[in-house]
Amino acid sequence: xxxxxxxxxxxxxxxxxxxxxxxxxxxxxxxxxxxxxxxxxxxxxxxxx
Length: 49
Description:
It is built from three helices and no strands. The protein has helices at 3-12, 20-29, 35-43. It is mainly α. Helix 2 (20-29) crosses helix 3 (35-43).
């Protein structure tokens, strides 16, 4: 199995948490300035960070 694919699967299965930098990069790809902005948009303050 490809190393990157296996790492992505582990993230989705929550075996490994992505770093803040990784989350910020993913948020940028989705059109947000950072992870906190993306999180706040979809979580509506229901959960603590």
